[in-house]
Queue: 2 jobs
Job 1
Amino acid sequence: KQEVTQIPAALSVPEGENLVLNCSFTDSAIYNLQWFRQDPGKGLTSLLLIQSSQREQTSGRLNASLDKSSGRSTLYIAASQPGDSATYLCAVQKGIYNQGGKLIFGQGTELSVKP
Amino acid sequence: EAGVAQSPRYKIIEKRQSVAFWCNPISGHATLYWYQQILGQGPKLLIQFQNNGVVDDSQLPKDRFSAERLKGVDSTLKIQPAKLEDSAVYLCASSLVWRRTSYEQYFGPGTRLTVT
């Protein structure tokens, strides 16, 4: 059974700091991994999707890496801003037709960036 | 491009009452998902549709939850009767799946259900 764990559960940093969020999964046979952002009371916004054949994806100040063999992914946020404050969720997708394509989520890391 | 639409955004009901949620996916997305997110946890899949058909409903409490997707577009999720532990955010997502390629799942704003 696939389990996804995110560490830390909460993180508070001063503005401008670079930071890393961690995600680990128990079954390395994944199809892809997605990082999402969730603002209070809102839905999920997809930040980055990494296919299993890729090692990293970048978008602006965000960089996500994937190491399937060790069951780990990291989300790197450069020069953090107060607007980055949100909960960050990682999710793995095991497959499409054999597993239905569902996403299995971690519990999230709640990030607070102080001005 | 319009996103995934959900209604209502908030709902408060008493236990043992019934409630229904509605979702309209992104146009052209054949796959539709309903997730339940309990406070402080990540979302958990309840049911997945591919066009009209159910692909995965293994975690749907079928004694009280039901869902349908008529004509392969809109979907409704119903709870009858509701329990206190059903208090959660119900998220609808859709994705474009073509052959063996999976695309990103796009999420709606969710419906926050409070059962008192």
Job 2
Amino acid sequence: DTAVSQTPKYLVTQMGNDKSIKCEQNLGHDTMYWYKQDSKKFLKIMFSYNNKELIINETVPNRFSPKSPDKAHLNLHINSLELGDSAVYFCASSHRTGGNSPLHFGNGTRLTVT
Amino acid sequence: AQKITQTQPGMFVQEKEAVTLDCTYDTSDQSYGLFWYKQPSSGEMIFLIYQGSYDEQNATEGRYSLNFQKARKSANLVISASQLGDSAMYFCAMREAYSGAGSYQLTFGKGTKLSVIP
């Protein structure tokens, strides 16, 4: 199936731990994103990569570090997890050219920090 | 200031009726795109429909149509013949003109929770 897939689907961990979320897309897109959805369902951009190059880095704590080994993968590593990091994290991808290109989202990773 | 405003936190509609979900936006760009997404309780984000700022006709996709009023900066989603499976969160989003920084992100509104009543 062609899709954006992210793992794990659920992640429960304790404060202070380091964790990673992996994302892969096989849609041939050249731009990938990380969004955070808070408990009120608000979706906010965190990072965007185009062809492995970081192009958006919103005001996100530097405990969050994205890594793009190639244009089909964008992983998110989080250091020293805090309670406030609990949220659903969505990976997405799109074509860079063409303003009408929708974002295709993964199914989300629900992170719970205890 | 919010770029995307969805003023209806929750809406109810009777099955088989039509419903309009409101979205207003704020941009100074001439070229932009507007998107609607559906998020059912299972959590995935599903792309529904797109409207470009230069499109002269309102976009339609099956039972979804977009009531685009450019002068009023509104892009309301109309769902015709509502079904129980339409119960979900609906998000309006905007992509502004491509900038030198290469930003193709979407900025989302806070969403409207639609409940379809049998």
